[in-house]
Automatic annotation (TrEMBL):
Pfam families: Phage_int_SAM_4 (PF13495). Keywords: DNA integration, DNA-binding. This is Core-binding (CB) domain-containing protein. Residues 1-85 form the Core-binding (CB) domain. GO terms for molecular function: DNA binding.
Amino acid sequence: MKTRSPFLNYIAEYMLVRQYSLRTVDTYLRWIASYIHFHNKRHPASMGDNEVERYLEHLVLKQNVAPRTQATALNSLSFLYKHIIKNELSLNLNFAHSKKQAKLPVVMTPEEVKLLMTH
């Protein structure tokens, strides 16, 4: 089992004291750790909007994450900057967003409709 850094332990304790679910704590810590590793282990206090934008674009353009996955990553980082770093992210983040895949409608052929209607 890999041990967490003191910084990530602090975040976990902060969240648990405030009764965040264990699943939320685990998810947020994984995204925050991924963000830190993406930026060569720089401390988040030395980064900001630009680094968050680059990371979120990387998730979409290189890792092809789903829209909800990208949103979860953003929520994790917003939490980090608002509650831990005490320096909220800008509301004007400019990054590539995941596109929701269009689902093709299920269409039946005329023959399939006839077959269905006869049964």
